[in-house]
Amino acid sequence: MDKITLAELGIPDHLPMPTKKDWRIGIIGFGGIARGAHIPAYKEVGWSVVAVADPDQNALKEAKEKYGIKRLYTDYKSLIADDEVEVIDLCTQPTIREDVVLTCANAKKHIITEKPFGTTVDECQRMIEYAERAGIKLAVHQNYRWMRMNYIAHHIVKLNLIGDPFFASIEIFGQQDVDLARHPFYSRCEDFLTIQWDNHLEDLLRYWLGTDAIRVFAKTGRMIGQNFISDNLLMVIADFGNGLTGHILHTELLRSSLGGVECRIDGDKGSIKFDFNNNLIIDSKVLGKGACKLDLSGSSFVSSHAGSMGDFLLAIEEGREPSVSGKNNLATIKTVIAEDKSAKLGGKWVVCSDKT
Ligand SMILES: NC(=O)c1ccc[n+]([C@@H]2O[C@H](COP(=O)([O-])OP(=O)(O)OC[C@H]3O[C@@H](n4cnc5c(N)ncnc54)[C@H](O)[C@@H]3O)[C@@H](O)[C@H]2O)c1
Q1: CATH class of the region 24-144
Q2: pTM to 2 decimals?
Q3: Which among 58, 268, 300, 313 is placed 20 to 30 Å from 306, CA to CA?
Q4: Beta partners for 50?
Q5: Is 94 in the pocket of ligand 1 (CB under 6 A)?
């Protein structure tokens, strides 16, 4: 198969990054994602994590001994009040969001939070209001947007290289029902795939297609003997109107090595097929070259959490709204809440609205 480069497609070969290099970040909630993804991502691009807040003494011990972080707090309010901390990175479970955002607004400190943004539309709207009133930036780590292939897929659609899309699909086959079987939050919550996980996937459909779902139809299933409380098989149809349909098939039940990710977007002038690693094939009538494999040599994408944090810091520098501001993320929250409701109704169309 012929190859095609990012330069030939007219797509950047790296993620945009802020010019200031010595950003001082304070992390609230030093659990799995903070240690496993945020710390290495920020190290990769040279930003310093100067403080950590967590009520768990083991988390603070780890922050001090393994990562050399000196400013340690059991109460996040003390971290937000610390003058050494310039921006706040909220990495707790979604049960802790609103008061942290309000405290940041009162202290006039910009904040980025892990997904999901909040647990209800009302809570998210209140957080947006606090931030707007205080003039602080409020962003959400929808870091999947900054994974290399998702970023490229977004640009292919935006550049009209496959024409007007009519279908986009994500299929994920994983085994977190085994890997996270004893996780105190994920294995016990009642909305693991629909809300906790799928906000990444519904947000990706919005990002790739540049528009928001109007209504969704979701159906879940479970395996006899599965570990998680919530169903770990999910099928979703998302109706974007104007002849545009999204599809998600996601299971975390696999007891085999045959997992993986398969995505595709089909338009009236071509298609792309891709995964979350390095593989993308484009067949575009606009390019007129037949099916081509993307050649990524020479490109240098940093990890996706550096991407979401980088956009947030760049938004502060440029005085603009972050790409995934709280306001922007509201449509993702409305979609996953509708999806969860649809699944709990056993599969019914549910409109993505303020009322879900
Ligand atoms: N973007 C991604 O790819 C991704 C991946 C995994 C998790 N996440 C999200 O990150 C968030 C955290 O997930 P996790 O897996 O790291 O969770 P976790 O349960 O491993 O860690 C949460 C941490 O928050 C701490 N905490 C609890 N209450 C606190 C408080 N009042 N103040 C400060 N800290 C407090 C806990 O002690 C714990 O250390 C969740 O919202 C999750 O959905 C995102």
Answers
A1: alpha beta
A2: 0.96
A3: 58
A4: none
A5: yes
